[in-house]
Amino acid sequence: MLVRFLIIAFLISGSISLAYSQNTNNENDTLILQQLKQYPRKNSLPVRRPVLFPETVVLSAESNLNLKVNYWRNLTSFGLNINQASFSDNWSAGGVNSLALGGQFAYKTDYTRDDKNFVSELILQYGKLNNKDQLSRKTFDRIFWDNKLALKLSKSWYFFGSINFESQFDLGYSFSKDAQGNERRTLLSKFMAPGYLTQSLGFEYKPVKHFFVRIGTGTARQTFVLDTELYKTNPKNFGVVQGKSFRNELAFQLVSAFDKDIAKNLHLNSRYSMFANYEKLTGIDNRLDVTLTANVNRLINVSLTGIILYDDDTSNKIQRSQAMAFGLVYKFAN
Predict the structure, then answer these.
(1) Which residues contact 205 (CB under 8 A, 6 or more apart)?
(2) Other CB atoms within 10 Å distance of the CB of residue 142
(3) Is residue 21 within a helix (H) or strand (E), and if so which, with residue range?
(4) Which of 319, 327, 260 is nearest to 291 (CA)?
(5) Model confidence pLDDT, tens digit, residues 140-194
(6) Is residue 25 part of a domain?
C-alpha cells in the first residue's frame, strides 16, 4: 500500500514540473521575439528643402503678347414651330385639316467699353396657317430693328440716342363672308404700309442688366404708307393723309424692357412702349409685348406670347393678340 502511494506522488510531481518548464520556455520565446522587432525611425528619409533663385524678367516695349479684349457680346437664336392636324371624312367628332408653320430669327449685339454702350437688336417673325377649304391666314408677321447708343452719366443713368424701324413682310387681310357664304378678304396692310422709323434722344435708367427705362423727351417718328391706294380698303390709312405716303410726328416716348430667367428653364421677355404726339396728347399710343418661354431641353421649348396694342390711327379699340407655340429653337452666343 505504501509503495502504491509513493508511485502516485512521484507521477503527480513529475507532471507539475513538466508543465512549469513548458510555460517558462513560452515566456522566454515571447521576450526574444519582442526583442527582434524593428521599428522605422522618424524622418528616416530626410528631404532637402529646394533652393529657389528668383529672377526678374523685364519685357521690352517691343514684346507682343497678342492680348485682345473683345468688348462685343452677341446672341443669335433661330426658332421653328409646326402644328398639324388631319381627320378622315367620317371622323364623328368633327374637325378640319390644318397646317401651321412659324419661324423666328433674333439677333442681339452689345458693345460696352468704359462709359460707352451700343446695343442693336433685330427680330424677324413670320407664321402662316392653312385650314382646309379656307383662305390662308397669317399668325404673326413682324420686322423690328432697334439700335441704341448711350453715354454713362452715373451708376444707373445714361444719355442715349436711338433709332428703330418696324414693319411687316406679307400682305395683311381681314376676312368675311358674302351673301352666298363664300369667304372673302380685304387688304389692310403690306410691307412698308405701314412702316415706322423712330428717332429718339433722352435719358435711360438701367440699374441692372435685365431691365431699363428710356425717357425720350425728343422723339420723331415717320410713318410710311408706300401704297397710296391702300386707303380705299383701309380708310384710317395709319394716320397718313389719303393719297400721301409719309407722315412726321414729334412726340414724347417712353420705352421699358425686362429680359431675365425668372425660374429654372423659365424665361420672361417683355417690352412696353408709349408714344405721345405733342400735337395730340389725348391719343397716346401704347404697346405691350410679353413672351414667356419654358425650355423643355436644349432644343425644344414652349412659348406663350401676348400683345396688347392701342393706336387710334389703326383702330378705335384696344387690339389683342395671343399665341402659344411648341417647337425647336437653337441659340448660340459669342
Answers:
(1) 156, 157, 158, 212, 213, 215
(2) 16
(3) helix 2-36
(4) 260
(5) 999 999 999 999 999 999 999 999 999 999 999 999 988 888 899 999 999 999 9
(6) no
User: Cell digits for 29?
Assistant: 520565446
Domain containing residue 294:
72-88+96-175+188-333
Tell me the one-letter amino acid at 243.
G
Distance CA 110, CA 173 (A): 37
pLDDT of residue 181: 84
Domains held by the chain: number: 1
How many angstroms separate the CA atoms of 251 and 46, rounded? 85
d(CA 117, CA 59): 34
Q: What is the CATH number of the domain that holds 232?
A: 2.40.160
Q: What is the residue type of 132?
A: K
Distances (CA, A) of 204 to 65, 84, 150, 159, 215: 38, 44, 8, 6, 6
Residues 137, 127 contacting (CB under 8 angstroms): no
d(CA 165, CA 287): 15
| 50: in domain | no
The H or E element that residue 128 is part of is: strand 116-131
pLDDT tens column, 5-61? 555 555 555 555 545 555 555 555 555 555 555 555 555 556 566 667 677 766 665
Q: List Cα–Cα distances, 168 to 36, 150, 165, 262, in angstroms.
A: 98, 28, 10, 30
Distances (CA, A) of 19 to 6, 10, 15: 21, 15, 6
Are residues 275 and 221 in contact, defined by beta-carbon separation less than 8 angstroms? Answer: yes
pTM of the model: 0.79
Question: Of all helices (H) and strands (E), which one includes residue 138?
Answer: strand 137-152
Gap between the Cα atoms of 20 and 67, Å rounded: 90
Q: For the chain, what is the mean pLDDT? A: 87
